[in-house]
Amino acid sequence: MAMPKELKHFLDHFEDLEDPRMERTRLHPLPEILLTTVCGVFAGCEGWNEIEAFGRVRLELLRQYLPFENGMPSDDTLRRVFRALDPGQFQQCFQSWCRNWFVLHDGSQIAIDGKTLRGSRDGDRQALHLVSAFATEA
Fold first, then answer.
1. Of all helices (H) and strands (E), which one includes residue 113?
2. Which residue in 5, 70, 89, 137 is a FRET match for 63, CA 20 to 30 A apart?
3. What separation in angstroms does the CA of 9 have from each of 13, 82, 99, 100?
4. Separation between Cα atoms, residue 41 and residue 15, nearest integer Å
5. Which pLDDT score, from 0 to 100, does residue 48 have?
6. What's the rounded Cα separation, in Å, for the pair 55 and 42?
7. Are 60 and 68 spatial neighbours (Cβ–Cβ below 8 Å)?
């Protein structure tokens, strides 16, 4: 399967992100979970159920880029994996990808919008906060 350079670029920035799951329990590879979640959030999904539904509807499209041999991860799997990830390490990888991918040109501005993913708070762990940024011309 040929990987587009944009996807390779994305995955390269997350290759140092430690997968907290035990290897024998990994039914879905971390890159598949990351790709599904990031695409779902960029598409406007507002919770793990919506991200799973997004992935199920677009599974054949996603399989053009990664195998998804075990199908689409459930919303519970997505939630568990993201709750177990080191937030600081994920933030560092995500910011590194954003800094190298999104380049502003003269006269451009970034419009920023934020929201909290409903149902993402778990016990003493904070809810997942999402920030959307759009490049606009002044």
1. strand 108-116
2. 89
3. 7, 21, 12, 9
4. 20
5. 96
6. 12
7. no
| Whether the Cβ atoms of residue 14 and residue 93 lie closer than 8 Å to each other | yes
- Among 53, 10, 49, 58, smallest CA distance to 30 is for 10
Question: Would you give the DSSP letter of residue 132?
Answer: E
Residues in the chain with pLDDT values less than 50: none
Residues 6+ apart with CB under 8 A from 72: 36, 52, 55, 56, 59
Contact predicate 7/34, CB 8 Å: no
Residue indicated by tokens 């929201």: 115
Cβ atoms of residues 51 and 36 within 8 Å:
yes
Q: How many angstroms separate the Cα of 137 from the Cα of each of 14, 33, 133?
A: 30, 33, 13
Q: Which residues does residue 111 pair with via DSSP β-bridges, in sequence order?
A: 134
Strand 108-116 with 129-137, pairing:
antiparallel
pLDDT confidence of residue 77: 97
Tokens of 105: 């040109």
Q: Which residues contact 30 (CB under 8 A, 6 or more apart)?
A: 14, 17, 19, 81
The closest alpha carbon to 8, from 56, 66, 82, belongs to 66
